[in-house]
C-alpha cells in the first residue's frame, strides 16, 4: 500500500478543529483557549523543524549530530519536568533531579533496546534511535513529573506527620516511606493504564502510524508491544530514581526535614 501524502490544505482542515476547541473554550469561559492555541502553534513549529532536522540526520548518520539532538531532547524534557512542579526544588535540583532520572532510565533502555533487542548496526542509526528515544523520554517525563509533584505536595501537607515520626526515632526513609510509595504509584499510573487499555480502548500511536504507512498489522502490533514494554521499564526506573533522589533531598545529613529546599512553582 502506498503512503498517501498530506497536502497543506489537509492539515489546515484538521487545524480548524483546534480553532473550534479554542472558540468553545472562550464561549464557555473555560480560560484555556490561549493555552490551546499556543500549544498547537508550538507543536506545529517543533514538528516541522524536527522533520527538517531528521531529514538531514537520516542522510548523514553523523554520531555527533545525533548526540547533540539527543542532548537537546533531554534538556527540554528536564525543563518540562521542572515547569510542571507546583513546589519546585530550589537551585540546580529543580532541574537536575528530572534530567538525571530521565538520562539514567531513557538513555540506558534505548541503548539496551538498540544493541540487544533490535540489534541495529550501527546502534546509533537515527531512524531507530531518535524515534525510540523520543517515545521513551516523552512517557518517562510524564511519569517523573507526576511522581515528583505528588512527593513534594504530600511532604508539604504531611509535614507534622513526618516530623512526628522522626521524633519517635524513625529514619528519614521510614518517615517518608509511605509518601514515596504513593508518589511512585502515581507516576506509574499513566503507563499502566496505557498497557491495560491498548487494543481494547485505544490504538497506540506507533502501531497506528505503521498501519497507516502500510505495515502488516501483526508486525505493527509486535513493535508496539516492544515499545510499550520499554516505556514501562523506562517510566518505572525514571520515577523510582526521581522519587529516591527527591525524597533524600528533602532531608539533610542529620535527617532533619528541610522543606525550605522547596520553592513555589
TrEMBL record:
Belongs to the UPF0014 family. The chain crosses the membrane at residues 6-24, 36-58, 64-81, 93-116, 128-148, 188-213, 225-246. It is a multi-pass membrane protein. It holds the Pfam family UPF0014. This is ABC-type uncharacterized transport system, permease component. Keywords: Membrane, Transmembrane, Transmembrane helix. It is found in: Membrane. InterPro entries: UPF0014_fam (IPR005226).
Amino acid at each position: 500500500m502506498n503512503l498517501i501524502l498530506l497536502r497543506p490544505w489537509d492539515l489546515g482542515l484538521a487545524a480548524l478543529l483546534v480553532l473550534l476547541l479554542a472558540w468553545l473554550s472562550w464561549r464557555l469561559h473555560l480560560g484555556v483557549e490561549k493555552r490551546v492555541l499556543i500549544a498547537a502553534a508550538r507543536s506545529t513549529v517543533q514538528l516541522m523543524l524536527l522533520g527538517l532536522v531528521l531529514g538531514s540526520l537520516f542522510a548523514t548518520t553523523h554520531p555527533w549530530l545525533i548526540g547533540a539532538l539527543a542532548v537537546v531532547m533531554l534538556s527540554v524534557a528536564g525543563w518540562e519536568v521542572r515547569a510542571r512542579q507546583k513546589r519546585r526544588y530550589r537551585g540546580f535540583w529543580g532541574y537536575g533531579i528530572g534530567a538525571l532520572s530521565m538520562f539514567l532510565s531513557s538513555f540506558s533502555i534505548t541503548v539496551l533496546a538498540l544493541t540487544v533487542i533490535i540489534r541495529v548496526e550501527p546502534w546509533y542509526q537515527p531512524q531507530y534511535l531518535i524515534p525510540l528515544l523520543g517515545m521513551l523520554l516523552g512517557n518517562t517525563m510524564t511519569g517523573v513529573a507526576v511522581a515528583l509533584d505528588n512527593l513534594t505536595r504530600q511532604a508539604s501537607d504531611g509535614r507534622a506527620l513526618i516530623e512526628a515520626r522522626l521524633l519517635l526515632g524513625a529514619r528519614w526513609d521510614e518517615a517518608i516511606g509511605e509518601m514515596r510509595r504513593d508518589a511512585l504509584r502515581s507516576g506509574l499510573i499513566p503507563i499502566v493504564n496505557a498497557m491495560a487499555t491498548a487494543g481494547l480502548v485505544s490504538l497506540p500511536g506507533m502501531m497506528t502510524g505503521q498501519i497507516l504507512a502500510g505495515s502488516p498489522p501483526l508486525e505493527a502490533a509486535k513493535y508496539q508491544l516492544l515499545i510499550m514494554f520499554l516505556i514501562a521499564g523506562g517510566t518505572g526506573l525514571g520515577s523510582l530514581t526521581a522519587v529516591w533522589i527527591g525524597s533524600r533531598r528533602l532531608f539533610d545529613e542529620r535527617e532533619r526535614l528541610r522543606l525550605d529546599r522547596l520553592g513555589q512553582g
